[in-house]
Amino acid sequence: MTTLKELAKLLNISVSTVSKALNDSHEISEQTKKRVNELAAKLNYKPNRIAQQLKTNKTKTIGVILPTVTNPFFAEVLHGIETAATKHDYDILVCLSDELLSKEKRSLELLSNGSVDGFIIAVARESQVRSEFKHFARVLENRIPILLFDRVIQDIECDKVIVNDFQSVYEATKFLIEKEERSNILLISNIEELSVGKLRIKGYNKVIEEHGLQSNVLKLGNVENVEEEVFRYLNDHPKIDAVISIDHITGIVAINMAKKLGRLVPEDLSVIGFGYDKTPMLSSPRISIIHQKAFDIGQQSMKTLLDSFKSEDHQFMTLVIPSELKLEESTVN
Amino acid sequence: MTTLKELAKLLNISVSTVSKALNDSHEISEQTKKRVNELAAKLNYKPNRIAQQLKTNKTKTIGVILPTVTNPFFAEVLHGIETAATKHDYDILVCLSDELLSKEKRSLELLSNGSVDGFIIAVARESQVRSEFKHFARVLENRIPILLFDRVIQDIECDKVIVNDFQSVYEATKFLIEKEERSNILLISNIEELSVGKLRIKGYNKVIEEHGLQSNVLKLGNVENVEEEVFRYLNDHPKIDAVISIDHITGIVAINMAKKLGRLVPEDLSVIGFGYDKTPMLSSPRISIIHQKAFDIGQQSMKTLLDSFKSEDHQFMTLVIPSELKLEESTVN
DNA sequence: TTGTAAGCGTTATCAA
DNA sequence: TTGATAACGCTTACAA
């Protein structure tokens, strides 16, 4: 790699002159600028970023710690994060916690050594289940900003970007009751331990209660044989006339199992799940979804974090990105 | 952030003594080591990585440029890459090209300034379609190693990790003909412009030819209304008795559309698609897939690249990670 | 208009 | 056993 020193030597001028010339300083004559730029171009000179980082004490890099990236929600969030980062000339260091506290902790510690200017994080499942958040607090004490999204922590004071989990499920359930005229609504979940899962279930229960209906919640945890469990439940409970799934998998499974049982969708059973752009295409009939604007969540997270760098005494904020009920005529009437 | 200098000042010893003590040098007395380590722990000292990078001229960071991460294949590859990186104490800077030549070029150039020790890349669709690869050559000239995976380039000399695209489709098609006794096999594709798509189609055509059958290829490009197109094709061609999809979407769509047309799967129509771990669960009946070991591809890519750093005169290699035909009794007989 | 020198936080060489 | 110093590549005050 070509350095300033090398250019200076070849041109028989000083390093600082070269530096200034490349930065188009008014102190330098046009002629020198031209000579310098030409040689730099010829030798494909690029200022060494590490040196710049050391000098300016800014890395222009954000550490992104995600629980997983095979879940399409987080994949799309990452897309949004990357897009916003690129737009503002930042890079992202990506770590996956695999939902494990230990990995999350390790990544956080390893990157808290000047590697990044800040973090964007969705908390690992294990950390949430065990309510173990000290590692976040420690980073904040070190004055490295953190932005939490989706799975956030009440007690940690920092910027947050969340989804209207409670509200969206509340409204979807209400829709099933009032517009679809359903009264035996099953909620299926494989994320009930997560903060977002709890909120979604609360949203469901609230409406159910308001309408004096019976609450039916099928908690699947992280089991392998989701299909079998759903099949059995639907088989054992023939009165169920609507399903609301609070993740992006089990809604599709419910449609498939209902059909296997000879139930007509949407005539016998209305189905609403969670999902993203391509989710509806994966089931037949196309599933109605509570569409989480994952890309926006990612973009806004990055934007909010970068904005916070600018203002001096920054006030922490919590941004809510509302989900959108996307109905398909095929799964609701 | 605490620095060596600060520690030195507080302890009234020199910076170099502190440095050596922290690195457990034999030159330093146990007593000093103890004092230093205790204070360092207390102040949560971490050696500044940027400074280390500048000093050693190694970033321990790999640039990863992916076309997209919402495609589950690339998401899972990324997972493998990250896992291997963490294992070897490397970080990854992730850039998404969004399948665009311009973004790919930009990321490559921006990171070729000492930000990374090497690259792992899957070529963007546009770069492949336009056969524009100069930007890769330029990076290699700068002596920054590149490892290409999945979508590789013949003319670029570097390490490569690929899938047996030709072979896997050849064998799957052969299976449909010989074991399933199908003779009107439709290949559906939405990736025919890609190198991997071309190879897969070749694999199909080879068997078709060997058996003197008719080649039926439905190219969808990147259209929106995939479902409609597939529906129409199946409707217009009632003789089709098997489908092989060379991506992870259209196979599921084919199952759904066939059912909509009243065709029985697998009795009337055998279906094999491409996919990953959770793909079969998304269709009913569960779809048989050519299972790409995306996680392994990611891991091996990282491992191969890091290995290449060690040996001096490294010989480029091309690693093939064979896909596995994963049959489900529900979509083949 | 150009050059000198200090400094960012480390590590490593050499001297004390 | 400890310390002074130079160096990595860059930027920037200050001097010439």
What does this structure look like?
2 copies of one chain form a homodimer. Chain A has 333 residues and is of the alpha/beta class. Helices cover 44% and strands 17% of the residues of chain A. Chain A has 13 helices and 12 strands. In chain A, helix 5 packs parallel to helix 13, helix 9 (165-178) packs parallel to helix 10 and helix 11 crosses helix 12 (250-260). The first copy, chain A, binds a DNA duplex (16 and 16 nucleotides) through helix 2 and helix 4. Chains A, B: Keywords: DNA-binding, Transcription, Transcription regulation.
Major sheet summary line of chain A: 6 strands, parallel
CATH class of the largest domain in chain A: Alpha Beta
Radius of gyration from the alpha-carbon trace of chain A, in angstroms: 26 Å
Question: Structural class of chain A, please?
Answer: alpha/beta
Number of helices of chain A: 13
SS strand fraction of chain A? 15-25%
Domain HTH lacI-type (chains A, B): 2-56
Keywords (chains A, B): DNA-binding, Transcription, Transcription regulation
Domain HTH cro/C1-type (chains A, B): 3-50
InterPro entries (chains A, B): Cro/C1-type_HTH, HTH_LacI, Lambda_DNA-bd_dom_sf, Peripla_BP/Lac1_sug-bd_dom, Peripla_BP_I
